[in-house]
Hints:
Layout: H1 2-9, H2 13-30, H3 32-44, H4 49-52, H5 54-71, H6 82-90, E1 95-96, H7 107-116, E2 123-127, H8 136-143, E3 148-152, H9 155-166, E4 170-172
Helix pairs in contact: 1-5, 2-5
Amino acid sequence: MFVLLRLLSLCPLWLLHALGSVGGWLVWVLDGAYRQRFLAHAAQAGYGFAAVRGAVGAAGQLAAELPRLWLGKPVAVEFLGTEHIDAAHTAGKGIIFLTPHLGCFEITPQAFARKYASSGQSITVLFRPPRKAWLAPLVNTARARPGLAAAPATPAGVQRILQARKKGQAVGPLPAQVRAAGV
C-alpha cells in the first residue's frame, strides 16, 4: 500500500483530482451508509442533493490529495499577515490556529513548520488517529516533520496542546474534530 501511495504522491494534482472525483462517486454508489449520512447532513444544513452533488466528487478529490501532501514535495503556500505571527513570536506569545476542515487542512501546519521551524518555532496540532490500524504508521511518518508535532485527540493529546500553548508555541486544535469519548 505504501508503494502505491508513494507512486500517487508523484502524480500531478489534476490527475489526483480526476482519480479522486471518480473515487468519490464510486464510494457514493457502493456505500449506502455513507450516502445516507451524506444526504442527512445536507438536509440538516437545508440543502437538497442538487445543491450538494458537486461535494460527492470533491470529497474524493480531497482524499486523493493526501498522498501528495504526505509523501510528495512540499506544496507552495502564500502567507498573508505574517507580521501578526512574527509579533506574537517576538512577544513570546503562542498562536492558536483555528482551521476547520475546509479544503486541505493538512497544508497549514506543514507550511507553518516549514516557514518557522528554522527560527525555533513549532506547531502542535490535534488529530484523530486513523480508524484503520494499517494507516497509523503512514500517517505518523507523513506528519513527522521538523517544527510539527501531532497530538492525538485524546486526553493526553489535549494535555500536549495545552503544554505547547503555555510554552508560547503555535497550536492547531482542529475545532471541526469530534472529540473522543472522555476528552
